[in-house]
Design goal:
0% strand, 72% helix, mainly alpha, 203 residues
Length: 203
């Protein structure tokens, strides 16, 4: 008499499994995507209001909080892309850190006794850094299907124009960045709302 053979269940391979990879369709990707979206939306208020009242303690506090939010955006973006494209993830993190330092540093220097235009220069340099780091980031999100393709292309266009506008203003002194920033600003509002609603999900 032969004993019944026991068969081990086969595990289906999961090529996307990675200890640092957000789970597709939920899990870490869900809550981190919602955090990312909320921080993108909050940055408008934090820097916009904070820079307007930079000569007061509350204004400087809001600007500093914006820099913290911007840095966290870089960390979340790096974590999302690390399993698939570490270089672009690192580039995005570096761009966000540079943006955070330039925005906060410019406002702090401008609020000093010299009353210089450091806040404007810091803002423009920060937008250049943001644009250069976000174009490949949006391309990678679209390629990995973390965003709908039309939204990824919108982001590429918006951030490209933002960087061009900021560089043009730095070179010529003409206040053109606000016009070039409109497509990117609308993209960030749409992106923030989309991610707060759905988080990062494979499309």
């Amino acid at each position: 008499m032969t004993s019944p053979q026991t068969t081990k269940p086969e595990l289906s391979p999961n090529p996307s499994a990675h200890p640092l990879a957000p789970a597709a369709g939920g899990g870490a990707a869900g809550w981190e995507g919602r955090l990312f979206g909320a921080l993108v939306l909050s940055a408008f208020v934090l820097y916009g209001v904070g820079s307007a009242f930079a000569d007061q303690a509350v204004g400087l506090t809001l600007v500093m909080l914006n820099s913290v939010a911007v840095t966290v955006l870089g960390l979340v973006g790096f974590r999302l892309l690390r399993p698939e494209n570490t270089r672009i993830g690192l580039g995005y993190l570096a761009a966000r850190i540079a943006e955070a330092i330039l925005l906060a540093g410019g406002v702090v220097v401008a609020s000093g006794p010299t009353g210089s235009e450091a806040d404007t220069t810091g803002y423009l340099l920060g937008m250049v850094a943001l644009g250069l780091g976000s174009v490949p980031f949006c391309l990678a999100l679209g390629s990995a299907r973390w965003l709908p393709s039309f939204m990824a292309r919108w982001g590429v266009l918006g951030y490209t124009l933002l960087a061009i506008g900021a560089l043009t203003e730095l070179a010529t002194g003409r206040a053109v960045t606000v016009l070039f920033a409109i497509p990117g600003g609308l993209f960030e509002v749409a992106l923030g709302c989309h991610l707060v609603w759905r988080g990062f999900r494979r499309h």
